[in-house]
Each structure stands twice: as structure tokens, then as C-alpha cells.
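Let us begin with a simple case.
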Amino acid sequence: MTATDPALTALAQGWCALSALHGRIEAHIERALQAGHDLSVREYSLLDVLSRQHDGEGGHLQMKQVADAVVLSQSATTRLVARLEDRGLLERYLCPTDRRGIYTNVTPAGLRLLDEARPTNDAALREALDEASKNAELAPLVRAVESLNVPA
């Protein structure tokens, strides 16, 4: 295959469309969360991921797992955790079985904020997808997103 191969060109165009859809959705949700709840998309995602932890086997996430879930580097995730901890939305504690491990939990205040922000996030996502579906290049991707049935 060469750089001018039609298959590569189509692949690159598909990637650009997917990237554009992601950017539009993220920017729309970011504006809504900032305006309504003083939260960024990343902060909301982190609170959401951490709120799903439980006390059962494998219920608490290590920082690398959290970083993977919110699609950030470990160092960026650590800084994000620290900012939310400073706001009283998260708390860190040592793993009771491995003193080297540090876990992070959402505080009651963080859970309240997440509950308040969830409808805003969901409505902004729906609005962004509806708007993107009007674009012929993005419409197939919107349909693909809407057809996914991924467990939380």
C-alpha cells in the first residue's frame, strides 16, 4: 500500500470523522458541565468511574486502571485526583491488604455532585449526537454509537 492508496485514504477520512465526532461531543458536554456544575468532562468521567467501585473482589481500581478508564496518563490522573480531593470530592486511603497501594473513593459531596451533573451530561450527549447526525459524514458514526449496548 502506498500513501495514495484509496483504502488508506478512506481509512484516514474515517479516522478524521471519528475524531471530529468525538471533539464535538466532548466540547458540547464540557460547556454544559462547566456552566451547570463547575466540572470538566475529565472530572465528571473520573467521578463516574470511581463511583462504580465496590467492596467486593476486584471492586477497587488501582490508579493505572483509573487512568485507562478516563483515557489519561497516570500522572495526569494523579493530578486530577488531587484537584478533586482538594475540592472535597474524592479521598485517598491506603489499601488495607497492600500498604503500597492507594485507593481513591468518591466522597458523599462528590456523589451528590455526580448525581446532579449526570442529567446535564446525558442531555448534552444527546444534544451533541442529534446535532452531529445532521452531518452526512458523521451520521453513520452517530448511528454506530447509538447501536452500542455497552454495560456501564
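The second case is a distinct protein. As before, the sequence precedes its C-alpha cells.
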Amino acid sequence: MTATDPALTALAQGWCALSLLHGRIEAHIERALQAKHGLSVREYSLLDVLSRQHDGDGGHLQMKQVADAVVLSQSATTRLVTRLEDRGLLARYLCPTDRRGIYTNVSEAGLDLLAEARPTNDAALREALDEAAGNPELAPLVRVVESASVPVQPAPSVGVPS
């Protein structure tokens, strides 16, 4: 394939459209969450992922699994956890079976903020998708997003019920 190959060009255009849709949605949600709840999209995502943990076998996530779920590096995830812990939204504790392991739970304040922010997130997502659906380049991608019914799980390797 060369740079002028039509298949490569179509693939690149598709990727650009997907990237554009993602960027627009994320920016729209970011503005709404910041304005109403003082949360970034990443902070909201982290709270959401961690709130889905449970006490059953494999129900608590290691930092690498959390990082994968929120699409950040482990170091960026650790910094994000620290910021939310400093705000009283998360709490870390030692793994009871492996003293080297550190887990993170959402505090009551974090759960309350997440519950308040979820309708804002959902409404902003809906608004961003509706706006993007009016763009002929993005409309097919919006239809794909709207038709997807993938169960939400924090990490593929952990069976956490949604």
C-alpha cells in the first residue's frame, strides 16, 4: 500500500472521523461535568469504574486494570487517584490477602458525587451525539454508537457485574 492507496485513504478518513466524534463528545461532557460538578471526564470515569467493584472473587481492581479501564498510563492513573483521594472521594487500603497490593474504593462522598454527576454525563453524551448526528461524516458513527449494547466492565480480565 502506498500513501495514495484509496483503501489507506478511506481508512485514514474513517479514523479521523472517529477521532473527531470522540473529541467532540469528550469536550462536551467535560464542559458539563466541570460546570456542574467540578469533575473532569477522567475523574468521572475513574469514579464510575471504581464504583463497579465488588467484594466477590476478583471484584477489586489492581492499578494496572484501573489504568486500562480509564485509558491512562499507570502513573497518570495513580496521580488521578491521589487527587481524588485528597478530595475525599476515594480511599486506598491494603489487600487483605497480599499486603503488597493496594486497592482503591470510592468513598461515600465519591458515590454521592458520582450519583449527582451521572445524569449530567448522560445528558451531555446524548446532546453531543444528537449534535454529531447532524454531520453527514459523523452520522454513521453515531448510529453505531447508539446501536452498541456492550456491557460496561472496568477491565476485560475482570468479571465485574455492571
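Helices lie at 6-37, 41-51, 63-70, 74-86, 108-133, 139-147. Residues 79 and 148 are 32 Å apart (CA to CA).
Keep these points in mind for the review questions at the end of the chapter.
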